[in-house]
Amino acid sequence: MTPLGAEQARALVTEAVRIPSVSGSEGAVSAFLSDWMNAHGFRAHVDASGSAVGERGSGPVTVVLLGHIDTVPGDIPVRVDGNEVLHGRGSVDAKGSFCTFVAAVAGLDADTLALARFVCVGATEEEVPSSRGAHHAVTQYRPDAVLIGEPSGWEGLTLGYKGRLVLHAAVRKDNFHTAGEGTSAGDDLTEAWFRVRAWAQERSGAGIFGAVQATVQGIESGTDGLMQTARGVFGLRLPPEVPPQLAQQELMARLDGLCEVDFRGAEVAVRHPKDSVLARALRLAIRDAGGTPVYKLKTGTSDMNVVAPHWDAPTLAYGPGDSRLDHTPEECLPLQEYDRAVAVLRDALGRVARSLRPR
Fold it and tell me: Where, in this chain's numbering, is Zn(2+) 1 bound (predicted)?
C-alpha cells in the first residue's frame, strides 16, 4: 500500500468537518470515517456506542488512539482559505485531532504494523457529560499506550486535565410579602453561591492547575404567587488534590439546610508523567521535525479523565490546533500545522512500536 499523501490527509479532515456531528447526532460522520478507514487499509466499523473504530497492525502490543468526533452546536460555514486554513465547527475540537490519528496510522509501514496493533476510536458524545464513546471503549480494550485526540498544537504534549463537578442547587419556599421579614428563594440561592465560591477559594492551591475554579453556569428564579423557586447551576474545575467525592462532602456540609443539592458530571483530575515511552517518542519526533516540545496541563476536561481510572498505561493528549479557538465562532485549523502533526505522529508511533513491550 502506498503511503498516504498530504492532499489525501487534508481531504479527510475537510470532509469530516463538513459533515455536521453535534453530540448525539454523529451517525453520518461515523459512517464516513468508517468507510474511509476501510478503504485505506483498516479493519473498520461503527461500534455499539456509535463511534467509528478502525484497526491496523497485528503486533503483540496495542496502542489506542481515542479522539472525539462530536462537536458543540454552532454553524460555521466550512471553507478553506487559500488552501491553507480550514474553517468549520470541529476543525480544532476535535475532528482535526482524530483525523491526524487516522492519517498517521494509515501511513505506517509494514515493519511498524508487525510490531503493534493500532486502534483509532472516533468517540461519540465527549462534549456532553455522557462521554458515551469513551465509556464504551474502556470495556473493549486493554491498551499498552493511549493517545487522546485534543488540540495541543503540533509541538504540544498535554499531560493532564483538571477534574470536574457540576452542582445543581434549588430553593423552594412559601411566597411572602417583600416588606416582611425573611429571605427570598433568590436570596438563599445567592448565599449558596457565595458559600461555593468561598469554599473554592479556600481549597485552591498554587497556579491555575492547582486552583479550584467556580463559575455560575445558569441561574433563574420566579414565583407562581404561592411558592417561590430559585435554581442555579455552578460549575467546578478541580485539581488532583481535590477529588469530586471530597468536594461533594465538603459542599454538602457548607450548604446544609440552605438549598437542595444535586451533583452531576463528576470527573477526577488526571496528570501523567512526562518521561513515559509515549512522551519520549513524541518529544523526539517533534524535535526531528524542527519543533520544540512544550508540555501542557489543561484546566478543562477530556476523555482522558474518563479512561484514566481504567487504563493503566502511558497516556497523553496530542493534536493540531489552538485550543483557545474551541467552541468559538473563529474555530479554524491551519492545514500546514495539521500536516506537521500527521508526520510527527507517524514518526512517534514507529518509535513507540519499537519501544513498547507487551504487558
Answer: 68, 93, 150
